[in-house]
Amino acid sequence: MKLIDPFNRKIDYLRVSVTDRCNFRCIYCMPEEGISVAPKENILTYEEIERLVSVAASLGMCRIRITGGEPLVRRDIVELVQKVAATPGIQETTLTTNGMLLAQYAQSLAQAGLQRVNVSLDTLKPGRFQRIARRGSLEVVLNGIDAAYEAGLRPLKINMVVMRNINDDEITDFAELVRHRPFDIRYIEMMPINWSDDEVVSPFLTDSLFKRNGSQPSQYPNSNAPTIRLLCKQPESSPPLGMLDAVQLRRLFVPTKEIRERIESRCGPLSATMIKTNGPARTFRYAGAVGTISFISQITNANCQACNRLRLTADGFLRPCLMANGEINLRDPIRSGASDEKLTELFRTVVFHKPKEHYVEEGLLPVGRNMNQIGG
Ligand code: SAM
Ligand code: SF4
To answer: How many domains does the chain have?
Structure first.
């Protein structure tokens, strides 16, 4: 039986975080030093991930994206990709990476059955790269992109998180890339992962920017669900050293509308393509470009009604939504001998509690986990 949530959405896409560790320290995702990672014994083993993927596949979840943290830092990742891709019922296996180890792995990942990669890249300037990612090398990532393309991992998508006064002057440079190269550049609105509760009551929230469709605050529909663990940890008063705090993040935010205007003023009008993606991206093309432009507008124009996914965290919790609290523990049941029927029931419980939409602009924010822990 397929997974259909209470809002009639078909849930067929699972994002699997295989680690919360990373070889970068992007300013919007992780602190520079002193990161807290889950103890190794809390991280799902490959056998456990394979089992959960197989249960998901039996429920009609036919598309898997491997993510993290940085998935390529986990040992023997190619073997996992091979097993996932070979799972009966899995039609598509993809991966999101920062690209640092991609040149090394692209060929073997493709041979293992990986179909596509998304590479995160926020700047084309080496010095700036160091300031944003704080580890790694732009040159190596660019080589990784070429290697992935050569290995047939296409269409190759490049994720750029747009930040005001940090990299927004490169919006059009990225758009120019697709004039001659068949990539899809995906402009991502900064998401308020782990923004602090302080921000909820701060005057910044009255920004009209964050009022989507004039919607009124509404109650998070499933907040009382007994089986969903709610993460309501009070945020630390100041973020860990080297991590942007809530107000800084807000000030860096650039809405899609502005990004699009800037691209159109340089490259000409964008026309919508018929390309269907697995997620919330909307894809466009400008005249003369071989590649495409997409926008992920989770804040100003979220497309929650088309959301088709669940997320499995590296430590084994299944989440119905990236941007809302709530997750269910699969690790303990699987380790205490749960049957496939029991695991199926837990998947169904999470789907049953999938919120209609996120309520970030109304002040209900995901807290307690960073993006590297959830799996972006
Ligand atoms: N390490 C891999 C990478 O960077 O591609 C995979 C995990 S990363 C968490 C997945 C994606 O989430 C990346 O494209 C990253 O830029 C994006 N991301 C992380 N924090 C974000 C935030 N606060 N807002 C928007 N995107 C974010
Ligand atoms: Fe690592 Fe990806 Fe987070 Fe950057 S966005 S710190 S590469 S997990």
So the answer is: 1
CATH of the domain at 54: 3.20.20.70
Residue 6 lies in a domain: no
* Digit-coded pLDDT (tens) for 91-113: 999 999 999 999 999 999 999 99
> pLDDT tens digits, residue range 302-357?
788 889 999 999 999 999 888 776 788 999 999 999 999 999 999 999 998 888 87
Q: Residue 275 C-alpha to ligand 1 middle, in angstroms?
A: 23
Give domain status of residue 321, yes or no. Answer: yes
Q: How far is the CA of 52 from the centre of ligand 2 (A)?
A: 24
Is the CB–ligand 2 distance for residue 24 below 6 Å? yes
* Tens of pLDDT, residues 188-197: 998 866 543 3
Q: Ligand 1: which of 23, 120, 294 to mutate, most ligand atoms within 8 Å of CB?
A: 120
4 within a domain of the structure (yes/no): no
User: Is 308 inside any structural domain?
Assistant: yes
Alpha-carbon dihedral sign for residues 84, 85, 90, 96: positive
Domain that holds residue 142: 13-374
Q: Is the CB of 98 inside a 6 Å radius of any atom of ligand 1?
A: yes
- CA 370 to ligand 1 centroid distance, Å: 10
DSSP, residue by residue, 84-137: HHHSTT--EEEEEE-STTHHHHHHHHHHTT--EEEEE---S-HHHHHHHH-SS-
Return the percentage of the chain with pLDDT > 90, whole number: 62
Measured in Å, residue 53 CA sits from the centre of ligand 1 at 22
